[in-house]
Each structure stands twice: as C-alpha cells, then as structure tokens.
Amino acid sequence: MRENAPEHGALRTPRAAGLAGIVFALLLAAAMVLVRLAIPEGADAVTARGFTDSGRRDALRAALALVPFAGIFFLWFLGAIRAHVGAVEDKFLATVFLGSGLVFTATLFGAAAAAGAVLAVGRPPGLPPSPVAWDFGRHLAYTLMTGYAMRMAAVFVSSLSVMGHRLGVLPRPLTIAGFVTVLVLLFVSSNVPWAELVLPAWSLLTGLHILRVGRGKGGG
C-alpha cells in the first residue's frame, strides 16, 4: 500500500502542472491584451489626457485584477514541475529554473504595480494625470514587463526545455517551440508590440501536453 502511494502522487503531479500551466497562460494572455489595449506603445501611444477614457481605465483595472492570480498559478506550475522531476533533476538547471521563475513572478508583479500607479495618478476622476507622472509610470511598467520579466521568462523556458529534453519528458517539437520562444522573448519582445504573447502560447502548449501525458498514465 505504501509502495503505491509515491507512484500515485507522481501520476497526479503532471496533471496539476498541466492545469496550472493552462490557467496561467489564459490569465496572462488576457492581462497582456488588456494592458496593450489600455496603454499601447509606439505610434498608437495614449496621451495622459486620453487615459481619462473610462474604457481604457476599466481595461487596465481588469488586467491588474488578473495578474496576481496569473502569478499564483505560475508558482503552482513551477512547483508541480519541480515535484515531478524530483531527485533526477540537474542541480544547476534546477537552480536556474527556480530562480528565474521566482524573479519573473516578482518582476511581473512590479510591472503590474507600476501600471496600477498610472491608474492612481489620474485622481480625482475625470482629470488626466500629469504628463511627467504618466510618462514615468507607463515607461516603467513596459520596461519591467518587456525588458526584465520577459527575459527572466526566457531563462525559465530555456531551462525547462533543456531539462525536458534531457529527461525525455518533452517531445522534440515542443522543445523546439521552447527555444523559439526564448529567442523571441530575449531579442524581439522589447521592440515588437504583442510579441510577449509567445510566453502564454508556449505555456498553453506545454500545459496541454503535460495534461495529456498525465491522463494517459492515469488511464494506464
């Protein structure tokens, strides 16, 4: 009876990781889209006066409400994968995997806090924030997200892809997709709007794969 318990737990862990990865992907993608619509960059950037529009402010509020839950499910995703890999994990890769995941979560929350500050400086309602506060908060939020959080996410995806390839738990196409995601997050996301959506797309594919494999083992 006790001998079967660890095996049963090992079978349940991939399902937990898969579900957490899927929920994280959906929440993060929704938050990213809402933020991009509320506070776009580049030629379509909204001015401080334009941000008094209630639709943009509501979109940003909705995005900020989703970010903490996205972070929670990401940490669950990270923990469930580590529990599944267990004693066979490479210590170096495991350290990079864990560290980059934690820094990504912290930086994601920092970007959300900066975006929340943009929302707060618009008070009293109906009045635009000052141009200086607006530019500082908007650029800080995007710098934290695209310049730092996405690069930490690239390290996370890279370490997981390498571990998955070495242990044979990720198929070759998903490993290749992981490295393509790494390149986009490292070199493209800070310059090309919407490129950061490759992260939730990769997480969704990985979560679906882990969930499918977990169900297959459970059925056996």
Number of helices: 6
The mean pLDDT is: 82
Helix share bin: over 70%
Structural class, judged by helices and strands?
mainly alpha
Portion in beta strands: under 5%
Q: Shape, please?
A: elongated
Q: Report low-confidence residues grouped into runs of 5 or more.
A: 1-12
Number of strands: 0
Q: H/E element string? A: HHHHHH
Would you mind describing this structure in some detail?
The chain is mostly helical. The chain has helices spanning 4-38, 54-85, 91-120, 131-167, 172-187, 198-219. Mean pLDDT is 82; it is low at 1-12.
In short:
The chain has 220 residues and is mainly alpha-helical. The chain has helices at 4-38, 54-85, 91-120, 131-167, 172-187, 198-219. The chain has six helices and no strands.
Annotate the secondary structure layout.
Layout (H helix, E strand, L loop, with lengths): L3 H35 L15 H32 L5 H30 L10 H37 L4 H16 L10 H22 L1
Organism: Streptomyces eurythermus
Protein name: DUF4386 family protein
Keywords: Membrane, Transmembrane, Transmembrane helix
Give descriptors for this structure.
78% helix, disordered N terminus, elongated
